[in-house]
Amino acid sequence: MNNTDNNSISLLHAMYNEILSLKAGQEKAKLEMKAQIEELKLEMKTSIKDLNLEITVLQSQLENRNISNQHTSPSVSAISSANTICKPVSIFREITLKHIFKMISEDLGIEVTSNEKATLNMCTKLICDDMAAHPSVIALGPNPSWGSIPVALKKEMCARHANIMKDSGIDFTRCLGNWASTARVAHLWRDRHKRLQSRK
Fold first, then answer.
1. Mind listing the pLDDT tens digit for each residue in 145-176?
2. Rounded to an integer, what distance in angstroms lies between the CA atom of residue 38 and that of residue 125?
3. Which portions of this protein are annotated as coiled-coil regions (predicted)?
4. Crossing angle between the packed helical segments 179-199 and 151-167, to the nearest 10 degrees
5. What does the domain layout of the chain look like in residue ranges?
């Protein structure tokens, strides 16, 4: 056997040993990775248990707080009903400007001066003008009565009136069933209708 053959055999032995070493390293790496995965799983299980325990504690605290609030705080419906202003008379068409001024003064605590009266008139006129320009009202003819206007449109316009009044510092939205805005808008519309009818 010559030197070349000896060198080749030595090289093959070295390569074989290297392959065995690599395989052993891979096996060791696999075992280490498996151990790390198991450790992570254990940590996750512990974390989930801790998290569930914290959630249970928080839920218990919230339930206790809700029970405490029910005993100490008034309900939302009680608060809202205390703030609402009921209709002054049973028959809607009998609500007058005096009733509305009295509501502004006594229920809202606002002194009725020329400024408040001007605000009310301006907001009411604005809503009536907007309603008169609405396509469904135009379709009714040149001078439709209050009763002929669609109910949904009247409700929408009167709700807008209440919001405009509120934005102007006079909270008509507190009126139950929006009676104040509806009364004023209906009254001004009927007045316009009568005036136009009398001109014919």
1. 999 999 999 999 999 999 999 999 999 999 99
2. 77
3. 23-54
4. 120
5. 11-66, 97-198
